[in-house]
Specification:
207 residues, Diaminopimelate Epimerase, Chain A, domain 1, 8 helices, elongated
Length: 207
């Protein structure tokens, strides 16, 4: 987990969510994941390319290589390529923005369904998912919340959330974005008497 999303961040996040839910009807769940998908094709491609380059060099170089070196070299190169492709920064560079954002949204919708966030009585559940490998953050809102806020407000909030990983401190940027969203939720979904907290703020969802 990114150092910016440490225990101190989790404490401040819980406080921010509690403030939003006290000031509005919104049932907010925030999930931070290391990655949205495994991308097994990336290490495979790196390994194959490294193995092929190694084999090409061993076969075409003017230097004499033993049979063992010719046999083991591509295998070792494949392993090195595989390991290097597992480095998050390298893996992210091999992913198009479209693929990254698509996988984060797929995971967010799966978490939304599996976590039962769509089961709130007034359909005002909201999920925010941040994925570290993809450096992408999305928000999924249930029908009641989606219709309560104007489309322009949702678009602005989505734009702000997408920009948190451009900050040197994405955790603080997320907390700031949530704080600015609180009066918006309060305006369009004001709190009601005896409002129940229907979703745990630290909802654990396994897929």
């Amino acid at each position: 987990m990114h150092k910016d999303f440490n225990q101190d961040f989790q404490t401040h996040l819980a406080e921010t969510i509690a403030q939003i839910e006290r000031a509005s009807q919104v049932e907010l769940v925030v999930v931070i994941r290391n990655r949205a998908a495994d991308y097994p094709d990336i290490p495979l491609i790196w390994g194959l390319c490294a193995g092929w380059l190694s084999h090409t060099y061993l076969m075409l170089a003017p230097t004499f290589f033993s049979d063992l070196e010719i046999y083991a070299g591509p295998l070792i190169a494949f392993g090195l390529g595989w390991v290097l492709a597992k480095v998050p920064g390298n893996q992210r560079r091999c992913l198009s923005r479209k693929r990254r954002e698509k996988n984060v949204e797929i995971l967010a919708r799966a978490l939304f369904q599996k976590g039962g966030i769509h089961h709130t009585q007034a359909k005002i559940g909201v999920l925010i998912l941040g994925s570290l490998l993809e450096k992408s953050c999305v928000i999924i809102a249930d029908r009641g919340a989606e219709l309560a806020l104007p489309a322009a407000e949702w678009q602005q909030l989505r734009t702000q959330l997408q920009g948190i990983f451009a900050s040197a401190q994405p955790g603080n940027a997320l907390l700031t974005t949530l704080a600015t969203a609180q009066p918006i939720f309060s305006r369009y979904l004001p709190p009601i008497a005896n409002d129940l907290n229907e979703l745990p703020d630290n909802l654990e969802i396994d897929l």
